[in-house]
Amino acid sequence: MKYRNKWSRRRFLQAAALSAGGLISPKFISAKSGSFLTKPIPSSGERIPVIGLGSSRTFNVGNDPLGLENVTEVMHHFFNAGGKLIDSSPMYGSSQAAIGYGLNKLAKIKDVFSADKVWTWEADNGPAQMEQSRQHWQVDSFDLMQVHNLVSWQQHFKTLFSMKQHGKLRYVGISTSHGRRHDELEEIMKSHPLDFVQCSYNILNREAEQKLLPLAKKRGIAVIINRPFQRGDLFDELDGKPLPTWAKTIGCNTWSQFLLKFIFSHPSVTCAIPATTRVEHVKENMLACTGPLPNQAMRNSMIDYVEKVI
Amino acid sequence: MGELTSYSLSDFILFSDKVYYRQFELYNHADWPLHLIAIIFSLVIIYTFWKKPAAAWSGWLIAVLLSLSWLWVAWAFLYARFYQIHVVANWYALGFVLQAGLITWYGVIKNQFRFTGESGARINVGLGLLFISLIIYPFIALMTGRNWLQFEMFFLAPDPTALATIAILVLYKAYSMLYVIPITWLLISGVTLIVM
Questions:
Q1: Is A61 on the interface with B (CB under 8 A)?
Q2: Which of B1, B17, B18 sits opposite A121 (nearest CB)?
Q3: Is residue A16 assigned to a domain?
Q4: Which residues contact A6 (CB under 8 A, 6 or more apart)?
Q5: CB pair distance less than 8 Å for B3 and A64
Q6: Which of A60, A180, A277 lies nearest to residue B6, judging by beta carbons?
Q7: ipTM for this model
Q8: For position A74, which CATH number holds?
Q9: Sign of CA dihedral A223, A108, B87, B29
Q10: Are A200 and A177 in contact, with CB atoms under 8 Å apart?
Q11: What DSSP character marks residue A20?
């Protein structure tokens, strides 16, 4: 019920996005207009688009033929718009199998940047679980494997780093969400040669800016941001609120683009992974990959504006 | 296991209400004409309690039908379908199998489902729950504005099966342990519906 309401709210917000007042200043902008935004993975230099695709809840459709066709359509438009990284986990029910279905149907198995997770308290089960995930995705191997929510991370790291060493995996990472266990994550980032870390961060939840994001920059760790819209709660907060007119100067015509640009304009963030079942939403999100990037001054203005209107 | 305390319930309900109810629609499509068996089971239960509640075989027969229902729901819905979208549904299925076993032991093997003939509030509550679970429940999808094909019936779906079981346990004054799993299931299901 909430998701259907969010769709109509998003449309309303889009229509109400233009308003009078606000500040327009080209000095708040960096990066060239029109360029497709990518960022490098520090450990390798490989560049990936600043927006990926999450699959928590949205791709969990079971064997429903209509559901599978719908997620395939979302993936089709995601790839068409230049998207590359898709993130999933065994925790997300049938999402991995839905991804594999879509990748196979779209012939994108070789093109996707596959980011998955290992999620089992029994570390000995890790390899078997990852192999099952690989079969669901129908990929030869994963690009990135993350320890999901820090579950049994010490044991799983042994497996993952060994896999990387033997060429069975390109990147090793770890994930958390909802602001959980940041202290422990910080210690892990300091002591292990991670390629990626995944955490939650958005314009209203900026806790990661305190330690995790600067640490990631310092340690050369790529950052994936989950829950960029707090599973739609941010749209509820911004319901009926107009975008500032200066949002257009950074290529933002909707709140989703505004919120995403705030996230990946942080110098430590590599990409954000919004999840959606709607083709319109994935197209709208991917438009945020183009246009100027706000610099720190404008980021401050974005925070001030949102905190004022909520 | 300490990490478990960092999770909330919504972390485990990783499917939308749309996907959840679609499972019933697909299930009803695939399992037709088993609905006829569900209707026959329901009519037998109603007739047996209405006409022969105190007969020696009455409770035994109803216990057989209940056991079969719990077993079928465990396999055909919870394990075969719900488990696709819900990582813990296999444990739910085990719980349903356990309940089938308990009903088989107490109701079928030991034949302890006995109608005492008393009237009053308990009987009214039992009859009310039976009426809701067998007659009303299949129409809830339509009444709440969903696709009518997403209906849930006793014998086929977990919620009306659990509710009908509680009704029968109340009417036949059965062993109190038999209430645990159905009540637990209805609580789990209720919370799931709220969190979705």
A1: yes
A2: B1
A3: no
A4: A232, A235, A236
A5: no
A6: A180
A7: 0.86
A8: 3.20.20.100
A9: positive
A10: yes
A11: S
Residue A19 lies in a domain: no
Q: Which residue of B has its CA nearest to A153?
A: B3
The C-alpha angle with vertex A212 and arms to A208 and A213, in degrees rounded to 5, equals 80
Work out whether strand A293-294 and strand A29-30 pair parallel, antiparallel, or are unpaired: antiparallel
Range of the domain at A131: 25-309
How much is the mean pLDDT over chain A? 90
Nearest to A263 by CA among A217, A221, A302: A302
Band of residue A177 on the pLDDT scale cut at 50, 70, 90: confident
Looking at the predicted structure, is the pLDDT value of residue B40 above 80? yes
| Whether residue A68 has pLDDT greater than 70 | yes
In chain B, residues 74-113 whose CB comes closer than 8 Å to chain A: 81, 84-87
Instruction: Say whether A60 and B85 touch across the interface (CB within 8 A).
Output: yes
Helix H or strand E encompassing A116: strand A113-118
Determine, yes or no, domain membership for A72: yes
Domain ranges of chain B: 16-195
pTM of the model: 0.88
Find chain B residues with C-beta within 8 A of A149's C-beta: 3, 6-7
Nearest to A93 among B15, B18, B22 (CB): B15
A-chain CB neighbours of B84 within 8 Å are 62-63, 93-94
Q: Does any domain span residue A6?
A: no
Per residue in A12-35, pLDDT (tens digit) is 555 454 444 444 444 455 444 558
Of A200, A264, A261, the closest CA to residue A226 belongs to A200
Task: Domain count for chain A, please give it.
Answer: 1
Chain A residues within an 8 Å CB radius of B26:
62-64
